[in-house]
Amino acid sequence: MPFDMLIKGRLEKGAKLMDVIDPSTREVFAQCARASAEQVNLAVDAAAAAFDEWSSTPLAQRQAVLARVADVIEANTEELARLLTKEQGKPLAEATTEVGGAAYLFRHYSSVDIPIRVIEETESGRVELHRRPLGVVGAILPWNFPVFMASGKIAPALLAGNTMVLKPAPSTPLTTLRLGELLKDIIPAGTLNIITDCNDLGPLLTSHPKVRKIAFTGSTQTGLKVMSSVAADLKRLTLELGGNDAGIVLDDCDPKQVAPLLFKAAFANNGQVCVAMKRLYVPEKLYDAVCEELAGIANKAVVGPGLEEGVELGPIQNREQYEKLKALIEESRWDGEIIAGGDCPQRPGYFINPTIVRDIAEGSRLVDEEQFGPVLPVIKYADLNDAVYRANATSYGLGNSVWSPNVSRAHEVACRLDSGTVWVNQHGVVTPTTPFAGAKLSGFGVEFAEEGLAELTQVKVVNVTKI
Ligand code: NAD
To answer: How many angstroms separate the alpha carbon of residue 18 from the centre of ligand 1?
Structure first.
C-alpha cells in the first residue's frame, strides 16, 4: 500500500519516503509519504481555497458528510484496527474499540446543531449571537490514539465549517493516511488535508499566516513552543497537553474490589494515555493490601504483540519512550521497591512488563514527572488532607480520581482536586458530550461538547434595531 498524503482531494506522494516501525519487532514494516515544506504550503493553500465553499455549505449537508465518514470508518473497522495495532502496538481489541470510538465521534457530530442564539428580543430590536467558522485549522497529533484523536479534531472542526490540515505523529502516520484515502471522495477536495513529517514541519503549520487556529495535542514541552509560535498573528489555540493524574483511594475501599479498576485506570493503552492514572495515593491501613492486589494483577497481565491472541498489554510505541521508561524504572529501584515488573520480556519489541513501585514518594522522578507508560508509583498517606494537598502539588492539572464506595464522601474530596476533570470510581473516561480541558500546564482551552465547539468558531453578534 502506498500510504500517500491527502492534498486538495488528491493522494500525493511525499517529497521523500519515511520508514514506519512495528514496535513489537522494532523492524520497519512499511514506508509512507514524508512532506516537504512546499507540500505543507500546498495543503494549507488547498484548505484556504476550500474554505468559502465548505463554510457556506448548509449545516445539514456538512452533517451528512460526517455521517458518511462514520459509515466508511465502520465499514473498514477491521482493516483500520489491524493497521493501528501494527503501527501503534496496542492489542487488536483496543484498536478495534479506538476505531469504533472514531466512528462514534463522527456519528455524534453529524447530528450536532450550531444554533443562532437570540440574546435579546424587544419591541425595538433583536440581538443575535452567531458562530462563524474560523478558517483553516491546523491539527497536530500525538502517537497514543492516532485515529480517535484525528477524528476528535476533524469532526467538530468540519461541522463548524472550518477546513483543515492535519498532521499525525511521525511514528503513527499510517492509519491516518489510510483514513485520508478512504475519505478522499467523501469530503470535498481541500476541506481535509493530511500531511506527514519527521517531527520537522509542525512549526511551519503553527506559524503559517493562512492557518487561523491550531488544535494541538501532545506534550507540554511542545505545547509551550506552539503557544509562542501562534502568538505572532493571534491564531486561536487549543492545547491538550501532558498530565500527572493522581488517584486517591479512600480508607473505606475494599482492596480486592478496587484493585482491578485501579489497574485499568493506570495501565490501559499501556499507560500511554494523557489521562492515565499516573500516581496512586493509598491510606496506610489499606496500603499493603492494595499494593499486593495490584502486583498480583500486574504479574498475571499478558504482554506481547498486539495482534497475538489474548495479549493485554502491547509494546511501548516508540524507542524514545521505551528508553525514557527504562531509565525511570532504574531510578525508582533506588527511590522505592519494585513489587511487580521492572524488567522487559525477552522479545525483540519495545516491551516492558507492567511495573508497580511501592514505598516511593514525591521527590522521585517517577512521582513528580509524567511517565506515560506501564509503571505506577503507589504512595502511602496518613491523612486525607495531606493526600489532597500532595495530589494538587503539581504543575499539571489534566485529571484526578477518587475511589470509595461512599460516593458522597468521594465527591466531597473530588471537589477539592485541582484539574480539568475529576472522576469518582473511574478514570480517563472522555466522551464528545463532556467538555475536556486541562488546568495549569496540562492545557489551554476546551475540546468536545458545546464549549469545545465554541472554540472552533468566532463569535459574531448581529445587533438589529428598528427605525
Ligand atoms: P510531542 O509533543 O512530542 O508531539 C506531538 C506532536 O507535535 C507530533 O505530531 C510532533 O511531530 C509535533 N511537534 C513536534 N515539535 C513541534 C513543534 N515545534 N511545533 C509544532 N508541532 C510539533 O508529544 P508525543 O510524544 O507525540 O505525545 C505524548 C504527549 O502527549 C504526552 O505528554 C501526553 O500526555 C500528551 N497527550 C495529551 C493529550 C491530551 O488530550 N491532553 C492526549 C494525548 C497525549
So the answer is: 19
Closest ligand 1 atom to residue 143 Cα is: 26
Q: Is 194 in the same domain as 274?
A: no
pLDDT in tens, 47-96: 999 999 999 999 999 999 999 999 999 999 999 999 999 999 999 999 99
One domain for residues 207 and 344:
no
Q: Which of 94, 240, 293, 370 is catalytic?
A: 240
204-254: pLDDT as tens digits: 999 999 999 999 999 999 999 999 999 999 999 999 999 999 999 999 999
What is the pLDDT averaged over residues 446-453? 98
CB neighbours of residue 310 within 10 Å: 8
164 vs 153: CA distance, rounded Å: 9
Q: Tell me, yes or no, if 415 is annotated catalytic.
A: no
Number of domains in the chain: 2
Q: Whose CA is nearest to atom 39 of ligand 1?
A: 240
Ligand 1: residue whose CA is nearest its atom 18:
203
Nearest CA to ligand 1 atom 43: 274
Helix (H, G, I), strand (E, B) or coil at 17: strand
Strand order in the sheet with 246-249: 337-340, 355-358, 375-381, 279-283, 246-249, 399-403, 421-424
CB-based pocket (< 6 A), ligand 1: 140-144, 167, 169-170, 199, 202-203, 206, 217-219, 222, 225-226, 240-243, 274, 370, 372, 398, 438, 443
Nearest CA to ligand 1 atom 34: 242
For the CA of 442, the nearest atom of ligand 1? 41
pLDDT for the residue 458: 98
- Residue 12 structural domain: 5-240
Helices (H), 301-394: 319-335, 365-368, 384-392
Residue 144 shares a structural domain with residue 115: yes
Catalytic residue among 32, 87, 253, 274: 274
> Which residues are CB-contacts of 133 (< 8 A; sequence separation ≥ 6)?
51, 55, 160, 161, 162, 456, 457, 458
pLDDT tens digits, one per residue of 301-310: 999 999 999 9
The reply to whether 69 and 116 lie within a common domain is yes
Reply yes or no on whether 32 is catalytic. Answer: no
- 240, 266, 296 - which closes a domain: 240
Q: Which amino acid is at 253?
A: C
Average pLDDT over residues 317-336: 98
Q: What is the pLDDT of residue 337?
A: 98
Q: What is the pLDDT of residue 1?
A: 80
367 alpha carbon – ligand 1 mean position (Å): 21
251 and 220 within one domain = no
Asked whether residue 448 is assigned to any structural domain, the reply reads no
The per-residue pLDDT of the chain, averaged, comes to: 98
Q: Tell me, what CATH number does 252's domain have?
A: 3.40.309.10
140: domain CATH number is 3.40.605.10
